[in-house]
Amino acid sequence: TLKEFPEDFLWGASTSAYQAEGAWNEDGKGLSVIDVGNHPEDVSDFKVASDHYHNYKEDVALMAEMGLKTYRFSIAWTRIIPDGDGEVNQKGIEFYDNLIDELLKYDIEPLVTMYHFDLPLALQKKGGWSNRETVEAFVNYAEILFDNYGDRVKYWLTINEQNVMIMHGDALGLLEDESDNIKAELYQQNHHMLLAQAKTFNLCHQKLPEAKIGPAPSIAAVYPASSKPEDVLAADNYSAIRNWLYLDAAVFGRYNEIAWTYMEKNNCTPEIEEGDMQILKDGNPDFIAFNYYNTLAVEADFAKEDKESNFSGDQKTVDNQPGFYRRHENEFLEQTEFGWEIDPVGFRTTMRRIYSRYQLPLIVTENGLGAYDELEADDTINDDYRIDFLRKHIKQAQLAISDGVELFGYCPWSAIDLVSTHQGINKRYGFIYVNRDEFDLKDLRRIKKKSFNWYKNLIKTNGKE
Ligand code: BGP
Predict the structure, then answer these.
(1) Does any ligand 1 atom lie closer than 6 A to the CB of residue 320?
(2) Interval between CA 276 and ligand 1 midpoint (Å)
(3) Which of 72, 207, 358, 395 could form a disulfide with 14 if both were Cys (CB 3.0 to 4.6 A apart)?
(4) ipTM of this complex prediction, to 2 decimal places
(5) At a CB cut-off of 8 Å and minimum separation 6, what does 281 contact?
(6) Every domain of the chain and the residues it spans
(7) 253: Cβ below 6 Å to ligand 1?
(8) Which pLDDT tens digit goes with each residue over 18-35?
(9) Where are any strands of DSSP class E within 151-224?
(10) 64-78: per-residue pLDDT in tens?
(11) Model-level pTM?
């Protein structure tokens, strides 16, 4: 039988600091790797973004009107500590103080990501996550957040999509220029992030016994391209490398054995110091947050076992790891305008797999449809395609709950339009339209899309519509 969404279900929406805030160099903010990153020439950079920094009151008022129970946003590390480690910037503290108070004024639960791709540049210059000192820098930063906001923030997320950062490290500016073994560098970074995360889980529990904290990777069910046993094995491989490596470390405090074999074969196992595994074991999350956009199908590629794998972080090479798996287009799924496969049923499968493996409460911190929206002459945006996408995913979330999955919240990407990681502002995800173009800022006015009213009603009826 179909179960209802729990009464206190956290219907929400998400953003990240660098994609929404703008004000990239205001009020003492330091530079992040994003501010100096290589950016495609045909799309906007992040300097103004949606100008959420200056419009947060209006944006929060709109979120309240929509009825959001939670708002998942990230704090820009460089606003709080411009150099990543060291001096605290009071203006940065104040901005999030104000934002949090504004949310609480409307009974919107703040759900805070500590780090969403925007590593302080000053740390990157010292080696970034390749440098073990970044672990302590992160934990210090986390402590400052707990000290300043722990009285009001109950839900914390450590690192957004650590797995995507490791798989696409070069795209996100996390690599040193002249790295000769990129893969080894990335998996070393991964180890350091895992340590930082585990220590932060621990610190949170010590300092804020009432608070809850979790990781926020991107998780996707991996399908075998066929029922050929080798394809099934390939799907297991990819799932281990893409999903379980990160969550097994976060939850069980151990390295997934299939992922470890993969690292051994590729000469990229991290250096693990004495005591590290104990640190991983001692830090435990209270829940698992995850982002879901699509599933992935793979086939076996064992014939190419001997060919050298050419990892560079770029999608094509991540998708093909000779000897382990090769990506396969799923002929059963439709794709978005941006070529992302759409798979609501896979959403249910993904939740079931995470829950049965870890038995921890789940919250979805991203899910959504990137599309070109059209602003009509009468100031409306008829994004029926987005409503259709979200409706189908929410239906599957309800089915997952009915299967027994403990799901306590759902935060679509994104609350307001913002600048995509690499495809500009016109790849829109929001319930709230932001009136600007890639290179023409226009008036940055906020306009409610059709999906705004739809989601408002959905929240009011707790998922019934
Ligand atoms: C996730 C990121 C977000 C985000 C979203 C959509 O990977 O956590 O920051 O933007 O994907 O991706 P994109 O912006 O590339 O369309």
Answers:
(1) no
(2) 31
(3) 72
(4) 0.98
(5) 253, 254
(6) 10-460
(7) no
(8) 999 999 999 999 999 999
(9) 155-160, 212-216, 222-224
(10) 999 999 999 999 999
(11) 0.96
